[in-house]
UniProtKB/TrEMBL annotation:
Residues 4-71 form the HTH gntR-type domain. It comes from Streptomyces noursei (Streptomyces albulus). It comes from the Bacteria. Keywords: DNA-binding, Transcription, Transcription regulation. PROSITE patterns: HTH_GNTR (PS50949). Coiled coil: none annotated. This is GntR family transcriptional regulator. InterPro entries: GntR_C, TF_FadR/GntR_C, Tscrpt_reg_HTH_GntR, WH-like_DNA-bd_sf, WH_DNA-bd_sf. GO terms for molecular function: DNA binding; DNA-binding transcription factor activity.
Length: 228
């Protein structure tokens, strides 16, 4: 069965474990262990690690090989700035290119979000918010932009804890306003509303603090050299 699991599926599984913290920043990613963990051969694991390295989730350290990348405050700040540029662009593109199926899903998500906000279900709201933005990315009609927006949201989720907002109902009203502009095909209004929504959401993002990374002890040969 191992050969039937694609590198893409393995990449998704490893990425999800990195984002959720199952694989901690700085921890080694050993191909044999990962292959056993996900029930695959080493080949898709190797391909997945290359993809994750290109995305910034994995890095390579001398003597340690592939490791989970460690959180960087400057990169984290940059991600929020990039989001402030790309999400409004995505909303504008969605206004021009969305399908009736996209609108149907988005309306359902906004309806559920407003309902959950009234009854106080924070866990449900986080998932609904993620689905809303993912559907919006798909509605851009651009595979490249969809991929960028999706990767960006995953990295933000990895680097930040999102605190429960004090204005949950207002946040979902903003989602609804963006959706109304997209449904009308008003790209510039969709862009402006999304930019304002992102600006108001910034206070709920709190940078995760990575646990100290335990470095491997120096090799015995180094110690021997130090004594000579």
């Amino acid at each position: 069965m191992r050969g039937h699991i694609s590198a893409h599926a393995v990449c998704t599984a490893i990425r999800d474990d990195i984002v959720s913290g199952v694989l901690a920043p700085g921890s080694r990613l050993i191909e044999d262990i990962l292959a056993a963990r996900y029930g695959v051969s080493r080949v898709p694991v190797r391909e997945a690690l290359r993809t994750l390295q290109s995305e910034g989730f994995v890095t390579t350290r001398h003597h340690a090989g592939a490791c989970v990348a460690e959180l960087d405050e400057q990169e984290a700040a940059d991600l929020l700035d990039i989001r402030a540029l790309l999400e409004p662009l995505g909303a504008a593109r969605a206004a021009a290119r969305r399908s009736s199926a996209h609108l149907k899903v988005l309306r359902g998500l906004v309806r559920l979000g407003r309902e959950r906000a009234r009854h106080g279900h924070p866990a449900d709201l986080r998932q609904l918010d993620s689905w809303f933005h993912e559907t919006l990315a798909q509605a851009t009609g651009s595979p490249s932009l969809t991929a960028l927006l999706t990767q960006l949201r995953r990295k933000i989720e990895w680097m930040y804890v999102v605190e429960p907002p004090t204005r949950v109902a207002d946040s979902w009203d903003e989602h609804g306003a963006v959706l109304d502009a997209i449904a009308r095909g008003d790209a510039e209004r969709a862009r402006a509303l999304m930019a304002a929504h992102i600006e108001r959401s910034l206070p709920v993002y709190r940078l995760r603090r990575a646990a100290p990374v335990v470095r491997e002890p120096k090799r015995a040969v180094n110690t021997a050299r130090a004594r000579t």
